[in-house]
Amino acid sequence: MRARLPVFFIVMTVVIDAMGIGLIVPVMPELIQEVRGGTLANAALWGGILATSFAVMQFLFSPLLGALSDRFGRRPVLLVSLLVMSADYVVMALAGSIWLLLAGRLVGGITAATHSTAMAYMADVSEPHEKAARFGLIGAGFGIGFIIGPVLGGLLADFGTRAPFWAAAALALLNAILGFIVLRETVTAEKQRRFEGSRANPFGALRSVARFDGLKILLVVFFFFNISTHVYPAVWAYFVTERFAWAPSTIGLSLGLYGIGFALAQGLLVRPAIRILGERRAVVTGMCFNIASFLLLTLVTNGTLLLWLIPLFSIGAIAMPALQGAMSQAAPNNAQGELQGVLGSLSSLSMIVSPLMMTQAFAYFSRPEGTLYLPSAPFLLAALIMGFALILYITDRTARKIQNAT
After folding, report:
1. What is the percent of the chain where pLDDT is above 70?
2. Chain centroid offset of residue 68 CA
3. pLDDT, tens digit, for every residue of 265-277?
4. Same CATH fold, 210-406 and 1-183?
């Protein structure tokens, strides 16, 4: 039990990071109008600015926190981030201006960039054959946070627009206390790495880890994989409203179903998939499932059928932990934090790029005056991007040799 508590803490940290994204979504329109006034349309514009600023900070600071954890240890980085996160939510709960909310989201993006450090800790405490399955637990934690966040935020909204922030502050503080009690340091003197500014920014860190054998193409695959799968949060609500005229309650149900399927796939299916198929084939199988799901979404015309199919779409989530396991094996032990920092930045960058691409595709092919009406065009675009990533992965001989050797 004592050995499992640190793993539980790491998963809970990721859950809280994911909850922080969705917990405040239900109250943001009303809160922005409360502190700034104006119409709902103006509130939506500011909501987009707040969301983008959060993702930008994650992109910029994931390598920094990863590099700091390689030098000073995972434990202080994780615990300090949780404490600052808790204080940040208190500030946002008391904020009386849009600029203070913006500052809160900027700081929140930095403190939520600990995903890379959490992944590095999990890599530290896992044997090579355990890494993909342990990364699956982190993915499951993210999926659980994705489910709980918006639901809890909507329930707490009955107590006022500030209630979700107080709840998030309390959760972060309680998890920091748990970590202080159970978390042991995994960065020993042998693993400790000198801090260098060139590796502590997303671009310098990317150049650094790309020099490791087998990682360059895998990083590109990881980036395009994320751009493709971010189509769901980017356009799902718009797509099902346009195609099936779903009410917000049905949209929430559908996102909940996907989140549950995502968590179950990463928490329960990754280990048997890798045992049966092997790590490389698990990646290929998951990517093929994603491509099939995107293509199916371009064809389905019945909303009830779509609800039944949603759990099947989430099976493709088995690819990501297996891909992360392959990259972790290709990096040396003293660079795990740096690698996970780069992956965090690439993931955040995809969260900036993907919505711009997918919403533009949806808007263009949903216009009444357009020459081709195809509101599912973003999913077709996602299938093409995933197909490109799959071809890159299959033809990458260096990564294949590393995986075969391990």
Report:
1. 82
2. 21
3. 877 888 888 888 8
4. yes
Specify whether the CB–CB gap between 262 and 146 falls below 8 A: yes
Nearest-5° Cα angle at 173, 59 to 102? 40
Q: Which CATH class is domain 1-183?
A: mainly alpha
Q: How many CA atoms does the CB half-sphere of 101 hold within 13 Å?
A: 24
Hunting for tokens 């503080």 — which residue is that? 173
Question: Would you list the domain boundaries of the chain?
Answer: 1-183, 210-406
What is the Rg, in whole angstroms, of the alpha carbon atoms belonging to the chain?
Answer: 21
- Write the single-letter amino acid at 378: P
Confidence of residue 41 (pLDDT cuts 50, 70, 90): very low
Q: Would you say how long the chain is, in residues? A: 406
CA distance 225 to 142: 17
Return d(Cα 348, Cα 305) in angstroms, integer: 32
Closest CA to 35 of 81, 104, 84: 104
H or E segment at 188? none
- In angstroms, the CA 2 to CA 50 distance is 39
Nearest to 389 by CA among 235, 231, 227: 227
Other C-beta atoms lying within 10 Å of the C-beta of residue 197? 9
The domain over range 210-406 is classified in CATH as 3.30.460.10:
no
3-state DSSP assignment of residue 374 = coil
